[in-house]
Amino acid sequence: MINKTYPNVNNFCGGNFQDWLEVNLLKECNGRCSWCIEKNGFHPETSANWKIIADQAILTGKKNIILLGGEPTLYPYLKEIIQYLNNANLSVWITTNGSRLSPNFIRKNLVGIKGINISIHSWDLSQNEEITGVKIKNLLSSIKTLKEMNISIRFNCNCIAGYIDNYHRIEDYILLAKSLGVTKVRFAELKQDDESFVDLAKILNYRYGLNDDPFVCGCNKNAVIHEVDVNFRQMCGLQTSQRKKPYNPVQFAKQVLYYDGKIYNGWQTKESQMNSVHTKVLSILKAVENGKMTSEEALVKIFSSMDNQISLKHIENVNTGAGCQY
Question: How confident is residue 186, by pLDDT bands cut at 50, 70 and 90?
Fold first, then answer.
């Protein structure tokens, strides 16, 4: 009998949040975050019409649609896709770096969304610009407009060494959010970035249920600090070398809709595509060894596989992200 490690049922990979669909609207971003996980992300060669993407989202039967990128506010048909999904009685959410937000932009493009996550990675906005490469100019007026439109607001903060890396700085961030009228905050550990990684469990002395084994003990923990709803998001050993990788892990896949109009099991990476070709080549060589294929036939198939990899026209649904949400 093979031993398996099962995730906490409250984790994304444990089957929670299955009524959510993540939509990667575009690869373009105006930021330059050094730790961006999409640097090694899969970027389809073609882009589908916005209506095809919206229809695919509706067909999944998911109730909550979260629009991501890249930077989703750069998407030229953002207004159209939000209205279309909203008319289908779906709850639409968006995660943005906040650089394009203004009262006018919000009223023109974001009518109908349920909530917005604004990614700000320091209580000091000048530091945030240093981290992300983008300037947030209209934060206070944008928050006021969002609240007038009854749109839920949450600040998302990645904890980065040298910036948000101790309790006092976390507290300063929470107080900034509260002073701006934002009562929801998420603090997340970095994924696949050892140099800038901040261990939330350690800097918060294991309060709020934070732990050394988020895969089994739970990676999402909630607290109320200074009357602000705070969510802590830890990374397990599948996402960072700073924690032990779970043995033979079992995960629930989470659907991701890409801008090519196709749905994949989990977020795809460039590496996953290379692994797919590598597996195919090994299979072809095995067929030659067993006498089921000639060398000439094998060469044709291998070059065909490589061509597909280079053009990214043939993509396997490799479950690279499982249930984990970025």
Answer: very high
Range in 141-155, 204-218, 258-272 the model is least confident about: 258-272
> Are the C-beta atoms of 153 and 142 separated by less than 8 Å?
no
* Cβ partners under 8 Å of residue 84, min gap 6: 50, 51, 54
Contact 81, 67 (CB under 8 A): yes
Distance CA 47, CA 287 (A): 36
| Cβ 278 vs Cβ 306: under 8 Å | no
DSSP string covering 226-274, please? TTEEEEEE---TTT-TTSPPPSSB-----EEEETTS-EEES--BHHHHH
pLDDT, residue 194, reads: 87
Half-sphere exposure (Cβ direction) of 48: Cα atoms closer than 13 Å: 19
Taken in order 113, 121, 203, 245, is the CA torsion positive or negative?
Answer: positive
Rounded Cα–Cα distance for residues 266 and 53 (Å)? 17
Q: Assess contact for 127 and 176: CB atoms under 8 A.
A: no
Rounded to whole angstroms, the Cα distance separating 297 from 276 reads 19
Burial class (CB in 10 A: 0-12, 13-18, 19+), 25: buried
Reference 288, options 275, 301, 277; nearest CA is 301
Q: CB–CB of 99/58 below 8 Å?
A: no
pLDDT at 300 over 50: yes
Distance CA 230, CA 246 (A): 27
On whether the CB atoms of residues 119 and 68 are closer than 8 A, the answer is no
Report which residue type is found at 94. I
Tokens of 122: 């320091």
